[in-house]
Amino acid sequence: MTTHHSSKHGLIARRPEELYMVFCDMRNFSRLVPGKVEAEVTADYDNLWVTVQGFKIGVRVDDREPYSLIRLSSADSPVEFVAALHFLPSDTPGRTEFYIDLDANLNLMMRSLLGSKIQQGLDKVVDGLVAASEGRMPDDMPEEFRK
Known about the structure:
Blueprint: E1 2-6, E2 10-12, H1 16-23, E3 39-43, E4 47-52, E5 55-65, E6 69-74, E7 80-89, E8 96-105, H2 108-133
Antiparallel strand pairs: 1-8, 2-8, 3-4, 4-5, 5-6, 6-7, 7-8
């Protein structure tokens, strides 16, 4: 059964073009895996594969609409999903309204295990981007993103 989740909206202190350019290249995500997580990560411009504790997730970019939308989907993953990253110009210059829509095909067991955690995870991503754009970096953020 497909479940739909939509993250909270966050106001990121970057222009849509700047934020979009970070997300359009999947190689940028490979550096965001915290050092304390033992994971094998490989990426190219369009694809990202992460293996953690034998659990493999692949993500590919299906569509890019410059500076407004990036559509991602699962690839060789145990859970089918489609995500849309939205980059909307804000009324405040130099800011982007950002949010994520996610549709995941979850069986009953996966839905009971992950259902509420998906929403929390999406909201945490938005909160993290807002904080990072304002200079409030998490302790486990890689050094190259602190500049």
